[in-house]
Amino acid sequence: MLLTRLSLAAAAAFTLLSINGCSQDSGPTLAAPDAFAQAQAGQLTLVDIRRPDEWKQTGVAKDALQINMAHPQGDAGFVAQVAAETGGDKNAPIGLICRTGNRTTQMQRVLQEAGFTQVYNIKEGMVGSGAGPGWIARGLPLEACERC
């Protein structure tokens, strides 16, 4: 009887952990080439959320806004800057890119919690991840960071 209860408790804990793990990546994603095509067509605002030293090191995705996720006013400042860049339109499609897609997952959630409805995670990032080879390896266009 005790073994059955322990087995059920372990199964329940595993299920809860699995659900929580899945929910962390529940937002929509885009591959780097798709994000670039949509940005070039004016259908997506591309936002590079990395730090200035990272922008300087690799360059920035062509036409991407540079909004450091480590904003001096925290998450609220980041959200306010994104809102300003999109004219306050919380339904505007936004594509977030970072180095490998980890930080974009976090900031996607922050923007969604602030009421943004179309926030896409470019999970392969600039240098690649398990989601894909990345912006740079795909040969997508880069711009030098002029504000670094």
Give me the secondary-structure topology.
Blueprint: H1 2-23, H2 32-40, E1 45-48, H3 52-58, E2 60-61, E3 65-66, H4 74-85, E4 94-97, H5 102-113, E5 119-121, E6 142-143
Parallel strand pairs: 1-3, 1-4, 4-5
Antiparallel strand pairs: 2-6
Description:
With 148 residues, the chain is an alpha/beta fold. The chain has one domain (28-143): Oxidized Rhodanese, domain 1, CATH 3.40.250. 42% of the residues lie in helices and 11% in strands. It has helices at residues 2-23, 32-40, 52-58, 74-85, 102-113; strands at residues 45-48, 60-61, 65-66, 94-97, 119-121, 142-143. The strands form two sheets. Strands 3-1-4-5 form a four-stranded parallel β-sheet, with helices on both faces. Helix 5 (102-113) links the parallel strand 4 (94-97) and strand 5. It starts with a helix and ends in a 5-residue tail after the last strand. Mean pLDDT is 86; it is low at 1-24.
